[in-house]
Design goal:
The protein is α/β, with parallel strands linked by helices. Helix content is 38%, strand content 20%. The chain has a single domain, classed as Rossmann fold, CATH 3.40.50. An 8-stranded mixed β-sheet has the order 1-2-4-3-5-6-7-8, with helices on both faces.
């Protein structure tokens, strides 16, 4: 396990990694998740062999610290991720990021383009205030005090599925709430506009069961490879690992 300070007050973002050739491949989880749980089975596949690989847990999640006085904005998470990559000596990385982690990866690539050569985004949040879907946690609908101190966190854990709950119960409730609220607020310009304006290689994976990607034509016109993954829902890496892995390694 390795770590880097991210807030100037001793709080640490942590990751595990395996050695290999560059450019490094960096996995970033979604809200209430953890990178190894969602991506280790992908990185262990034979076609992934030999690449340096990092599994980073964002602040408030997994094995990383969860300071109570931290903002947990998308920019905060991106800066923490950049601190980890700087400490690891990583540049020009391939970032493989899921959901909220995809939004963080977009912000990272915008703020620190030298750190990122390629983005593989799995159902990343692109717009602020997305419509509530069946798989939504509903965290952002709570006031912080109600979520943290008055049973909101427990109600959300009861509501979501067992896979998500297994990692969300390990995350800090305050960090979760602030992250969810800031994810709903998004960025200015939006994550979608930031993604469309980049020159790095970009792949956007959408599970077939999640419906069509909003603004697909504009994304493709901007050079984003948009892929609908058959038989998959939001957790593409679990639902169709073969297709997910093929896109990560760049096999059409």
């Amino acid at each position: 396990m390795k770590q880097a300070e991210f807030d100037g007050r001793g709080s640490m973002i942590r990751w595990t990694e395996t050695p290999g050739f560059e450019p490094a491949r960096v996995y970033v989880h979604g809200l209430g998740s953890a990178s190894t749980v969602y991506h280790a089975h992908i990185a262990a596949r034979p076609e992934m062999a030999g690449r340096r690989t990092l599994f980073v847990d964002l602040p408030g999640h997994g094995i990383s610290d969860r300071p109570a006085d931290y903002g947990y904005t998308l920019e905060d998470h991106a800066d923490a991720l950049s601190a980890a990559l700087d400490e690891a000596g990583v540049s020009g990385a391939e970032i493989v990021a899921h959901s909220m982690g995809g939004a963080v990866a977009i912000v990272l690539a915008h703020r620190r383009p030298g750190l990122v050569s390629r983005l593989v985004l799995s159902e990343a949040n692109l717009d602020p205030y997305p419509p509530v879907k069946a798989g939504s946690s509903g965290i952002a609908s709570y006031e912080e005090a109600d979520y943290v101190d008055n049973g909101g966190h427990a109600r959300v854990l009861d509501k979501i599925g067992p896979t998500w709950a297994a990692t969300m119960r390990l995350a800090d409730p305050r960090a979760l709430h602030r992250t969810a609220v800031n994810l709903a607020r998004g960025t200015t310009p939006t994550m979608r506009r930031l993604l469309e304006g980049m020159t790095a290689d970009r792949v956007y994976l959408q599970g077939e069961l999640s419906g069509e990607v909003e603004g697909r034509r504009d994304l493709e016109a901007a050079g984003v490879r948009v892929v609908t993954v058959p038989g998959a829902g939001h957790n593409v890496m679990f639902d169709n690992p073969d297709a997910f892995a093929a896109e990560v390694v760049g096999v059409p």
